[in-house]
């Protein structure tokens, strides 16, 4: 959270006053941690500070663009970070969204089949032998189950089409008594009394009186108003109340669709509120990358990636909780409430001001970096020359 231009083991070690990055690199790659225990500490901290029985579990994935083929999980795949297919590493995250605030609870790295079908590649990246291929909805289902099994209070789950289109995830949530509002595609098939129909075909036949204008929450420029409608459905004979929720843009007429479930009937406005909360995970991605270096890891192996992202999630949880506490204790008359960005700025400037380093220390680090880079460059050239000779 130091606000460094780049955040990696080199920059962190120099900022901390270390003579080299060796200690930081060992800390991530080889030091003895109780990784599961620290992950449980993150979950317990977030729930202790923000917990609410009506909280929403938000699932989504994010990608980090990478070069080469050696970084664990990397391949050419679609990532919303770039909005297209790129060489990237993708992970699924679970956000806890409550009235007081929101922060990450857990994450899981997505390993494509190109990795799980190549044991040698996985072994080189330190992937445990027990790890097998799992779809993104499966990873989400595992994280949600783990949270619920230890008593995390929550009433709803929401996510985008990747998760809404998965019937196994919907069935698991319904059987565990959780409500959900999960996006689906316009071509998603819905069972009706007249047979299976596409979601878009149902939407365009609705009469004017079927629509209600409701805000999906407050945005940066005011209320996010849309027209909404819902149609009662069934889903695999699962318990509870099931609907197709339809959102229509009041300016463009564009449609969006959601499969919904509630253990007991709830009004349309409740589903709309949950649908609007899905965007908290986008805020968490943006803020945790900007303020806690979630995406700036320069590591290749399984253990190092999990440790780096866990530390970033802990740092961001601290910012989110501190911001929530400030909202409870500080008057905001004539001021907008404190944001996580402002809290990080105040924390860095006031809590831990850093004296200017001595000239000798700065020069020593410059020498170390350039020596390391020269050795790396020579190694790359030697490997390239050897490959050319073999060919």
TrEMBL record:
Domain Transposase IS701-like DDE as annotated: residue spans: 11-188
InterPro entries the record matches: IS701-like, IS701-like_DDE_dom, RNaseH-like_sf
NCBIfam families: transpos_IS701 (NF033540)
PANTHER family: TRANSPOSASE
Annotated protein name in UniProt: SRSO17 transposase
Organism, as annotated: Parafrankia irregularis
Organism lineage: Bacteria, Bacillati, Actinomycetota, Actinomycetes, Frankiales
